[in-house]
Structure formats: C-alpha cells, structure tokens
TrEMBL record:
Residues 123-312 form the Aminotransferase class V domain. This is Kynureninase. It comes from Didymosphaeria variabile. The keyword Hydrolase applies. Keywords: Cytoplasm, Hydrolase, Pyridine nucleotide biosynthesis, Pyridoxal phosphate. Pfam families: Aminotran_5 (PF00266), KYNU_C (PF22580). The gene is BNA5_2. Homodimer. It catalyses: 3-hydroxy-L-kynurenine + H2O = 3-hydroxyanthranilate + L-alanine + H(+); L-kynurenine + H2O = anthranilate + L-alanine + H(+). It is found in: Cytoplasm. Belongs to the kynureninase family.
Length: 497
C-alpha cells in the first residue's frame, strides 16, 4: 500500500493511458474553461513556422496540422503564459500614454482602470487574497532579489550574539548571493551563512524535523532564517507555518521566498505570522518576463512598534507607525504629501511604505491583467484542480512499459509537500536526447543540468490532455534515447520511485 494513495492508482491501464480519459477529466472540471483566458503557443509558433502568404510553408519534419496544434507548455514554474487580456490592458495603457501623457497618472482610465498613481493600491486586494494577507501587508513593487535585499535591510539586524543567516543548501543562486552579500555588507564572515543540506545525498528532500533541528542547533547565534516556500529544484513545499512558529519560539526572524509558491499553492502569510516574504509575478502569476514582483510585511511589526512607542493607539501619528528602519524612497512616503517636496519621509503604514520608486505602469498593468484572471476563481479551487492534475501526471509517469522506468520523481510523493511541479531525475546520459526529442514534438519543460526535467502543469491553463500528450511524448523520447545510447545501465540506474 503506497504511503500517499494516488486517486488515479485504481484506474486500469486501458483507461488511464487513453487520450479519452484525459479529455473526460478535462470535461468534468469547470475550471478547464480558464485555459481560454491564455494564449497557448502552437507547436508551429515554437518551431518558428508561419503560414499564409508571407509565411514559411516549406515542408518540414512536421505536418501543417501538427504545427497548428497547441504546444504542450508545462513550464509555468519558470515563465507563465500570457493571459489574453494582457494585450488589451497593455494597449489601453499605451493609448492612455499616447493621448493623455502625464495626465494618465491622475485621471481614471477607460475600462475602469485606475490612474497610474493608484495602481499600487488597486493591486493590493487581489494580491492579498492570493498570499493570505491583509491588503495593508502586501505591495507590488521592484523585483524578487531586490525585494529580498530591501527586506533584509530592515529585518536582518545582526548583533554580536545573533548574526547568522540560515538558508537551504540548494537555495536558488540569487537567494544564496543575496544572503551572502548581506553578511559581507555587515562585515560578517561568510562562515555565518548556514546552509541546510539534505541528510541523504541521494535525495534533495529536507524533512521538516531536519530543518527544525538545524535551526535549533544554531538558535542562539541566528538572526534570520530565509527559506523558499517551494524549492525551485525539487518542488518541495515546506511547512511554512510550523517552521515560522519554531523560529519565533527561538526569537529568530523568518522570511520566505515565494517565487515558486505564489499562485501555485494557497499560503496564509498573515495567519502563519510570517515576518516577511517576497515573490516574482512571472511564474504561476503570469505577469510577463521579469515583471514587477511583490512583498509582504506582517502588520504585527507595526503593532509592536506602536505599543513600544506609545501604548495608546489613538495617539499614534504616522511617524510612529514606522515598522522598521528601511531603505526609503519617495513612493513609500505618504501619498497625500508626496508631491509637496518637503523632504520629510512619512512612511505609508504597511508594506506600501517599502516602495522606493514610482513603479512601471506598464508592469503594473500587466500584473493587473494577471490578477484579473485569478479573480475568476480562487486559489483554493485552483489548488484542488492542481492536486488532481499533478496526481494524474505522477500516476502516468509511474506507468512506464518496462520496469523500472529510466527516471524517478524526486519531488515528494506527499501531495501536501508539493505544488504543481514534479521534478524528474533521468538516468545518466539521457537528458539531452530526451529533451531534443520532446522539444521537437512541441513540449516545453525546464531542464536543470545534468539530469533533471521540471514539469509543472499550471492549474490555470494546463489540461489533463496536456499531461497525457507530455507523458506519451516523454516516454517515447526515453525509449529512443535508450535505444540511441544503447545504455543498458541507463535503464536500471535510478529505479522506480
Ligand atoms: C527561488 C527564486 N529566487 C530568486 C529568483 C530570482 O528572481 P529575480 O530574477 O526576479 O530576482 C528566482 C527566479 O528567477 C527563484 O526561482
Ligand atoms: N531559467 C531562466 C531564464 O532562462 C531566464 C530567466 C529566469 C530563469 C529562471 O530560472 C526562472 C526561475 N527562477 C526558475 O526557477 O525557473
């Protein structure tokens, strides 16, 4: 009996492996209709084919029908697809800029869009719903690594006793560099960067017990724990609530990088008492490549300062509501006085007070389009669909025509410990062959050298049909790669998961 029963495990091969099964799963899920909100590139688009009078109609390896078929895009964990409404919203932004110039900042725009000056406030409520926060606790601003630095400039306050930063050993390089450079910035030796590595070299899995024990081991000397909500490589979803509680019980501040969690899994940053978090809006959020990111600062930090300053909230003025010292800019200062040019920084209470510059209205417009798609459903409903999609992907991958398969899934088997993504470790020597084959057949997934493919069915736009087509093409790619490399060992190295 498997430890985590898969709802598709009971379905017989003849049904489960059929396209009809995938199509019927799509048919009975009302959220399947959200796919129409997105532009799905065709296989021909990806192959750079254009049909029509000026297009390249030269015969290629693939039929015209195949070129016109939607590609199998399972890479929303790296870059989400474009919502159809993004073009409409961006065109409106361009029209406003062209026809109103500077007045675009102040005048409500067509289609009920707020003036650019108020776009930051307009995005709060929808963003807060997605990350389980109060609107005052979130803001759309800057980019992920920049936000981590800004937040650490407020939350990482090393003392002679407490100065270490704990991260995980396979942290995304940017997070590693950010933490490392914060230490250097404070003239603290790099040995104060503590990395949590998996107990077993065979698996990237970090048990919660292991994470808690490393934190406890360094508790007296640690100032900050910075962890990902979902690990980019393994797809492991950490127990944010428990780890946060553990850190707080030891007097340690904790921040979360939600790059791979936001828009993917429900989180409750407010209820879980997370100190701070940051994310990008270009993966599951579908805001566009390198688009403006977001951050969260718990309102508790304001309350702590309030009581320390006065104890009577009625007599608090804006100046006393500052959470923390922070690196400041004019966009974080009180809106009503912003244009008085008085050089008195009056922080906006809440996360908005962390803003620096006037944000790119183009970016904000693009994020608005993406949030409006999320508002057609809820993150909880998306999660329910995502659990089914990923379970289906898992079960299909486990059914390979010879045993063991030439790959294994390194993402936790427990659905509560993963989001949409499954990371597939291929037997040595297969990756390039498999990748060439699947890309040639219109599949887009992410590779992490030397042997891992990350496959992420994004619940907003991916379908069971996508997963079906992926597995058929991927497994055929594996068979061909094994035949080409003639590698017997390639068939047996990893074993089944
Ligand atoms: C976990 C994680 N941290 C940091 C980054 C870097 O983000 P950015 O380039 O937006 O700063 C990424 C992705 O690029 C990521 O996945
Ligand atoms: N691979 C990337 C790229 O080619 C351009 C920009 C970003 C990336 C990334 O790796 C994005 C992301 N953090 C990821 O985990 O896929």
């Amino acid at each position: 009996m498997p430890k985590y029963p898969n709802p598709y495990a009971a379905v017989n091969d003849a049904d489960l492996l059929s396209e009809a099964f995938a199509r019927s799963e799509d048919g009975r899920d009302p959220l399947s209709s959200l796919r129409a909100e997105f532009v799905i590139p065709t296989k021909g688009d990806l192959r750079n084919k254009q049909y029509g009078p000026l297009g390249n109609q030269a015969a290629g390896a693939h039929s015209e029908d195949d070129d016109h078929e939607e590609s199998v895009y399972l890479c929303g964990n790296s870059l989400g697809l474009q919502p159809r409404r993004t073009r409409e919203y961006v065109n409106r932004y361009l029209d406003t800029w062209a026809s109103k110039g500077v007045f675009g900042h102040f005048k409500p725009l067509e289609g009920g869009h707020p003036p650019w000056l108020d776009l930051d406030d307009a995005l709060k409520e929808q963003t807060a719903r997605i990350v389980g926060a109060l609107p005052s606790e979130v803001v759309v601003m800057e980019t992920l690594t920049a936000n981590l630095h800004l937040l650490m400039s407020s939350f990482y306050k090393p003392t002679p006793d407490r100065y270490k930063i704990i991260i995980e050993g396979k942290a995304f390089p940017s997070d590693h560099y950010a933490a490392q450079s914060q230490l250097a910035h404070h003239n603290i030796p790099s040995s104060a960067l503590i990395t949590i590595t998996p107990p077993s070299a065979d698996s990237p899995y970090l048990t919660t017990e292991h994470i808690l024990s490393v934190i406890s081991q360094h508790n007296a000397s640690t100032a900050l724990v910075l962890l990902p909500g979902i690990q980019f490589y393994s797809g492991q979803f950490f127990d944010i609530e428990l780890i946060t509680r553990h850190c707080h019980s030891l007097g340690i501040t904790v921040g979360w990088d939600l790059a791979h969690a936001v828009g993917n899994v429900p989180v409750k940053l407010h209820d879980w008492n997370v100190d701070f978090a940051a994310w990008c809006n270009y993966k599951y959020m579908n805001g566009g490549p390198g688009v403006i990111g977001g951050l969260f600062v718990h309102d508790n930090h304001a309350k702590v300062e309030q009581t320390q300053v006065d104890g009577d909230a009625k007599h608090i003025n804006h100046n006393q509501l500052v959470y923390k010292p922070r690196l400041s800019g004019w966009w974080g200062s009180d809106k009503s006085r912003r244009f008085r040019m008085e050089n008195e920084f009056v922080p906006i209470p809440g996360a908005s007070g962390f803003q620096l510059s006037n944000p790119s209205a183009l970016d904000m417009t693009s994020v608005l389009a993406s949030l409006d798609v999320f508002s057609l459903t809820s993150i909880e409903a998306l999660r329910a669909r995502s659990l089914r999609l990923t379970a289906y992907l898992e079960e299909r991958l486990l059914r390979y025509d010879s045993k063991p398969p030439p790959y294994k899934i390194i993402t936790p088997a427990n659905p509560a410990e993963r989001g949409a993504q499954l990371s597939v470790l291929l037997n040595p020597g297969l990756l390039d062959h498999v990748l060439n084959y699947i890309e040639e057949h219109g599949v887009v997934v992410d590779e992490r050298k030397p042997d891992v493919l990350r496959v992420a069915p994004a619940p907003l736009y991916n379908s069971f049909w996508d997963v079906h087509r992926f597995v058929v093409i991927f497994q055929e790619g594996c068979r061909r790669a094994i035949a080409r490399t003639g590698s017997k060992s390639a068939e047996t190295t990893n074993g089944a998961s």
